[in-house]
Amino acid sequence: MAACIFCRIIKGEIPSFKLFESDKVFAFLDIQPLSRGHALVIPKYHGAKLTDIPDEDLTEILPVAKKIAAATGATDFNILQNNGRIAHQVVDHVHFHMIPKPNEPEGLGIGWPAQAADMDKLKEYYESLKSKI
């Protein structure tokens, strides 16, 4: 945690353009934005992946992201949260991006490689997954 860039930002050791702070959440502008208003909303609790963060430390995340989106005036935007390197996570501290999408070239660009599902296999997986929730 001592080396975590986001923990250091929360502590004030690294300057940021802070937009919001509470006991559980810190939000600031991204310094490598995909578009104007691109912000990060992070829990103060340090954890690398979403599953590492206690539920009570996540309760303010989406309301804060919503407030920032409204404040930017964005009508189109993405809320993005990545877990693990192959899922494009770079900083090992849970963070949510609020990325305005003002036009086609700016903001988040993604592919969506959808696949046709075998309904029998999907039903089998559904039953397995549902029993664990």
TrEMBL record:
The keyword Hydrolase applies. GO terms for biological process: nucleotide metabolic process. InterPro entries: HINT, Histidine_triad_CS, Histidine_triad_HIT, HIT-like, HIT-like_sf. Keywords: Hydrolase, Magnesium, Nucleotide-binding. It catalyses: adenosine 5'-phosphoramidate + H2O = NH4(+) + AMP. Pfam families: HIT. Residues 5-108 form the HIT domain. The active site is at H95. Its cofactor is Mg(2+). A motif (Histidine triad motif) lies at residues 93-97. The keyword Membrane does not apply. GO terms for molecular function: hydrolase activity; nucleotide binding. Belongs to the HINT family. This is Adenosine 5'-monophosphoramidase HNT1. It comes from Aspergillus puulaauensis.
